[in-house]
Automatic annotation (TrEMBL):
Matching SUPFAM superfamilies: Acyl-CoA N-acyltransferases (Nat)
Coiled-coil residue spans: none
Short name of one Pfam family: Acetyltransf_6
UniProt name for this protein: FemAB
PANTHER family: LIPID II:GLYCINE GLYCYLTRANSFERASE (PTHR36174:SF1)
Highest taxon, organism lineage: Bacteria
Residues covered by the BioF2-like acetyltransferase domain: 168-304
Length: 362
């Protein structure tokens, strides 16, 4: 179902994302807003929707012809997980960006109306300005706190300072990796992309997670252009660890990364993140944003081992009255069993089936 480009409520409207001028306005608003993230950019939410056969949408609120609030959205459909409006899809951030002149409640009401139009029984806002839980104007919304945490810290002034800033135990692992015959490559060529995806597929199968289609990763690399790169660690010319990073407002965010079975014994993941810290500083970044992890998960503790302190994240969810709540939590009993089954699949089978499932996870 295609949503028409007409006002939803008073001064809240859907943006025509086929209009380059509107795309430029949104990019400019995100660039100027102090809470803008890579996931608010059309380079993200429009690109990932196209690559996964989902639908990108954008709500804006205007005053005197100027944008005062912006909510990027991906309408994601999955035969496994159902339909959802996510801000934003395949991301760990997003949510409503607002100025002092905005009326957030009007935007929340508009996104509820839009969800009903699109037969999406669920909405998830991943950060940004959130509805006030329990307020009569925000009935149906619930806040989810403490389930995930973000990790970010400033980069050090030079290579040696970066190494010594890492806690002792993890620093020892990095030092060991420096003594192993590993090579580092950075770029966005076909060689870089193919190496990354080969590593990424194996890593996701080992985690029990359906792998994203390569088109999704390529779409972000293409959409962000100079604001992204791929760093790959090779051993005897074979890629063993690789990560796609995006750059935004002085921060580098390693986003899609992973390693092969050999990566652990070669300490390739340790080398990868240390080399990315050095590379990011050289290209002008001042902050290393390690992204989010589920609280108390293995990734959560891995990031703490690097000296990053967790910052609890809060998300908002809305469920249509009478509809069942969407379950895409990998720790739930139902999905944890599916994860164990997936981990046992041959890599070739996981690589064929994974993209068909993952395009609907959102």
């Amino acid at each position: 179902m295609n949503a028409p480009f007409v006002p939803l409520l008073s001064d809240v409207r859907l943006v025509d994302l086929a209009d380059p001028g509107e795309i430029a306005r949104l990019e400019g608003f995100v660039a100027r807003h102090p809470l803008g993230t890579p996931f608010h950019r059309p380079a993200w939410f429009v690109s990932v929707a196209a690559a996964t056969d989902n639908k990108a949408l954008a709500l804006v609120q205007e005053r005197g012809g100027e944008i005062v609030a912006f909510l990027p959205l991906d309408a994601v459909h999955s035969p496994v997980f159902g339909r959802i409006l996510a801000s934003t899809g395949f991301a760990v951030g997003g949510g409503l960006l607002a100025t002092d002149y905005a009326d957030p409640d009007a935007v929340f009401a508009a996104v509820e109306e839009l969800a009903l139009r699109l037969s999406c029984p669920s909405i998830e806002l991943r950060g940004g300005v959130l509805p006030a839980e329990g307020a009569s104007s925000n009935a149906g919304w619930a806040l989810k706190t403490e389930s995930h945490a973000g990790f970010a810290r400033p980069l050090a002034a030079d290579d040696e300072a970066q190494l010594t800033s890492i806690p002792r135990k993890q620093r020892a692992e990095v030092r060991r990796s420096l003594g192993i015959d590993l090579t580092i490559e950075v770029g966005t060529s076909e060689r870089d992309r193919a190496a990354h995806y080969a590593v990424f597929c194996e890593s996701y199968r080992n985690l029990g997670t359906p792998v994203f289609p390569r088109a999704l990763l390529d779409s972000v690399v293409d959409g962000f252009g100079a604001d992204t790169d791929i760093l790959t660690v090779r051993h005897e010319d074979k890629p063993v660890a690789s990560v796609i990073s995006v750059y935004h407002q002085g921060a580098v965010m390693p986003y899609w990364g992973g390693g092969t079975w050999d990566a652990r014994r070669l300490r390739a993941n340790d080398r990868m993140y240390y080399e990315l810290m050095l590379h990011a500083r050289r290209r002008g970044a001042s902050v290393f944003d390690f992204g989010r992890s589920k609280t108390q998960s293995g990734a959560y503790h891995f990031k703490r081992n690097w000296g990053f302190e967790p910052e609890p994240l809060t998300y908002a969810t809305w469920t249509q009255p009478g509809a069942a709540k969407r379950d895409a939590d990998p720790t739930s009993g139902k999905l944890s069993l599916q994860i164990k089954v997936w981990q046992r699949l041959p890599l070739s089978v996981a690589n064929r089936l994974g993209p068909l499932i993952a395009r609907g996870i959102g």
